[in-house]
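As the next step, I needed to go through one protein, both as residues and as discrete backbone shape codes, included below for the reader:
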Amino acid sequence: MKNLLILLLLTAGVFAQEVIDITVKGISDLHNDGAQQDRLEAIVDAKRQACEKAGLRIEARTTVENFKVVQDLIESQAATVLLPGFQLIDVGYVQDGTYQVVLSGKIKILEEQENISNKEMRYAKSLNDREKYAECRDILSKYIDSEDKNVGADLKEESFYYYIKWGYSYDIDEDVHKFAAYYPDSKFLTNLESFAAFAVKPVYVHDQTCQSGADRWQPAEFVHEQTTYTRKIVCTADTLIFKNFKGQDQTLLLYLTLFSDDESEPATAYKLVIAYFNGNLAGRPNTADQVRTVIDELQTFNPGGSATFSSSYSGEGFGDYKFDDIEIAGDIPIGQGPFRQKLQFTIYQRSF
């Protein structure tokens, strides 16, 4: 019997992340071993591709004499990622003499723990972990575009992958399309394509209008520069929760407060604070030491000025996310009211 390859598929350090649809074409080898055997080879090839799309890596190859060993190994691995209900469609023999099948169904994407093998990427990761983002981005960009013969294709591919994964891409969808064109057989491609489809849609859209009047003023003492504010209206004190790419909860804390003093021409202001819990993990409680402030904005209004205001901000990054198009508008809190305040922003996930 002909020699065959046994594939050792490693799943160390992986966990189920999400379910996606796949369609792959399985192809037999060029040896005509009869329709039954060739069909089986095509099915095994299709299931091998399904395993690789799920994130299982081909780590080692050993020559053996028995195709049954290869089949049993891939079948057992496919059973962990290929969900029941998949379909196998026979194409049959094609012009080049191979037997082909089409497998379609759903697989569980597995996310592998980062195991960076080369020193350049380990250094880049250390910069990213220490929040030295500009230096990390420069290193990744240098390798992606390098024409140095000593910079191998593997390093370029890995640099491009982490450039997208760590959130340095300005246009995720376009960069993933480019990555797919450069590295169509990359082990990273399925995960990147899934993330790109997720990242183009906002994970959270906020559009809120608050209304209050003079009867809502509460005693307070807040000093800013040379002004002492003596009362406040809490327009919003809210906890916002949305799902990230991995299906875990991400929590935001939102506060919008109006301030004034008791003068005949009062000094007035608003304060917007947005904070988030860093390190949210499914099933684990949030703690106070995880809170990170993203926006802490105070805007003061001059007495006798306009009765309304409007402010906008280009956006702020936090964790794996970015605020886009932050807009706040409303009435200056003078007189009896009612005072209306409007707050809008959109959040996209930029890294994973």
